[in-house]
Every structure is written in structure tokens, then in C-alpha cells.
Amino acid sequence: MPAIHYHDALNDALERMDDLGYERGAGADLANHGPMGAEALAVLGHGGEVAAWVEGYRTAMPHHEVPARSFALDPADETSWRPALGDFSRAGDWEELFRRELAAAPWRDVLARWWPRLLPGLLAGLTHGLIRTAHAVRSLAAVSGSASAGAGAGAGADAGQPTQHQLTELARGLAYWAARFAHLPGEVRMSGQHDLAGAIAALPRTAYAGPGKRGRAVAAQRLARPAELAGYHEALGSLAPTGTQWLLSEMTTAFAGVYLGHPELFPVPLVHAVTAPAAVRLVLPHLPDELHEPSAAALWHVHTTLLLAFTDDRGGEETAAREAAETDVPPFDELIARAVEHGDEHVLKFTEACRREHALRPDPRYGAAVLAAQQRIKPRRR
Fold it and tell me: What is the DSSP string of 255-270?
């Protein structure tokens, strides 16, 4: 198969998926993963596979239509846009707002203006607003020749101007984040005594005491009311101050271990505890320095909520690092080939994020977690 450049493969994919709504699934509100999966596949150096992957993705599950626009949101008037945060019926209005913003100003200016406004709702769509935005940012940075460190050789640096498809994708990432904005109670204070591993270990887990087997409905209830769970507010103040880049690496390694330690759980949600901080790392080089620490704090807020919502106990978290080191894990080149063959969008994104994070600070938990995800998540039929 002939090699297809990242830029060409991505823009072809975005054009093919231009008509897809923000969410998918009969009776469900699962995020549209198509643009993220296609961008990750191209970054992994498999641009020639992207078009076929997109066509398979389109037919795997029906997507909902984008909510119709009702009336314009004024970005200069907080009383206009703030009440629309978290109102998914306004997704079309949010997309139109960001399209106008990106037509009038450089994309980095728009990103820096809206990032602190959206940061308190980082959990939006189980962090998919953030992650979709980050994939779009990486594509735009590649065009301008300033891709962030560790972005992956597949992205390269395409000197030139972003296409309308790329700008639209950023508008949609931000719009989804705004429309599914999910404010979490409490406030993170980076003034505690624990490093990240200690803070995770200190977080109590609430066992499910209801009838039958604990399922996704219980996790959804906990996500909606995390402050009612033991340890939530204490955890928000448990982290000691530390450098943002170091903390991002601590987050991705620790939560790769958390993923390994819970084979009993539905295998998708905790993937995002790794891909979310990896996504923030892609965006930080394009944001003012003063937004870096609040971004890390918002991630810990989300991590606390995910742990309390999805885990009943610590499972195998304590032994995950040792077991990962003792596991016979293929090198990342082979894991990438397996991910491409596997085809699931979560597996592709997780493999790309762990490969990138491992290159920055090697740790056996990354490869072991990727291998586990490839085994636990059902492959997408090609």
C-alpha cells in the first residue's frame, strides 16, 4: 500500500466524516470518535489505512444528527454563552460560535481565550471534548510547523495554512466540550502532602451494596453525584505542588497501572484516565504558562471522580507496576501493528497516547496497559 502523508490522510478523513453528528448509538450518547481515531491512525504512520478505517467506522454504528441551531451565542457577552454551557441542545449554536471565532482570529488565540472557560467542565463527554480538541490542535500545529514535543513522527510538520476541515474540527471539539460541559463540585487545591501515587492510594473506594451486579448505570449515578462518595473532597486537597509536565507523566504512568489493576471492569472508561492527560500535554505548548497548573489541577479533579465512579476497591493497583515489569510485552512497533489490525478507536488512541508518553519517560506499565486493552476490548470487524 503506498504511503500517504499525515496531512493528506487526515484531511481526506475529515472530509469523509463531515456529515457525522457529535454522538452515536441507538438510545446512547456515545461520543463521535471518528476524527480522533483517524488522526491517531495517521500519527502512528498508517495514513494508507485511514480511508478504509473511516468507511468501516461510519457503518459500525449510526450517528445522531447535530442539534439544529436556534439562536446565536455572543462570545463577548457572558450572559449569552454561559447559560448554554452543558446544554447539548445548543451544540449547533456552539459550533457556529467557534466557526465565527476561528474565522476572525488565529486558532491559538481562540484556544487560549476559551480554554480557561471550558476547563471547569473537563469531564465533558467523559473527557472527549478535551480529547477531540487536542487531536485537532495537534493537526493544526503540524500544519504550522510547530508540533509539540513528543507529538509523534507521523504528524511531521506541514508548512502552510490549515484547511477549512481542520479549523472546523477544532470548532467541533470545542463545541462538544461546551455542549457537554460537566461542572464538578469542589475545588482542587494543590497544597497537600501526597505525590500522585500517594493520593491515589489514600483515596477510599466505595463498594457497591445494591442488588445484583454493579453495572454502568451505577457508575453513571456516581459520576452525576461524586461529592456524595467518601473521600471525594479530601482528595481534592491531597496533592502536593509539583511541576505540570512531571505531573502529567505521573498521571499517565499511574493510570496505566490503574487500568492494568482492574480487569474486572468494563474496559473502556478508564482508558480516558490516560488519554486525557496525554491530550492536555499536546495542547499546553499552545497555551499561556499561567494555564498549565490549572489544567493539571482540573485533571486531578477528573481522575478523582473517575476512580470513585468506576472502582469499588483498589484491585491490583498496588502490584501493577511490578506485574507490568514481569510481563512479556511486545515492542511498541508490534503493539501499533496490532492496534491497526484490531481497529477499535479506543485501542488506536490508547496505543498512540501510551507510545508517546513512553517515549518521554519509559515505563513498562504503558506497553502492558496497551496489550491489556487490545485483549479486553472487542476488535472492530474489518
Answer: HHHHHHT-TTS-SSGG
**CA 275/CA 270 separation, integer angstroms:** 9
φ/ψ region of 89 (left if φ > 0, alpha if ψ in -120 to 50, else beta) reads alpha
The percentage of residues in the chain with a pLDDT greater than 70, rounded to a whole number, is 95
3-state secondary structure 97-142: HHHHHHHHCCHHHHHHHHHHHHHHHECHHHHHHHHHHHHHHHHHHH
Residue 257 has pLDDT above 90, yes or no: yes
| Burial state string for 217-241 with b = 16 or more CB within 10 A and e = fewer than 16 | ebbeebbeebeebebbeebbbbbee
The model's pTM = 0.94
CA pseudo-torsion sign 46, 51, 55, 61: positive
* Helix (H/G/I), strand (E/B), else coil: 73: coil
Kindly tell me the number of DSSP H helices and DSSP E strands found in the chain.
18, 2
Is the pLDDT at 252 greater than 70? The verdict is yes
How far apart CA 141 and CA 108 sit, in angstroms, is: 9
Strands 30-31 and 23-24: antiparallel
Cell of 337: 501493528
* The total number of residues written for the chain in this structure: 382
Cell reading at 5: 502523508
Q: What is the 3-state secondary structure (H, E, C) of 212-231?
A: CCCCHHHHHHHHHCHHHCCC
If you compute the radius of gyration of the chain from its CA atoms, what whole number of angstroms results? 20
Distance CA 222, CA 151 (A): 34
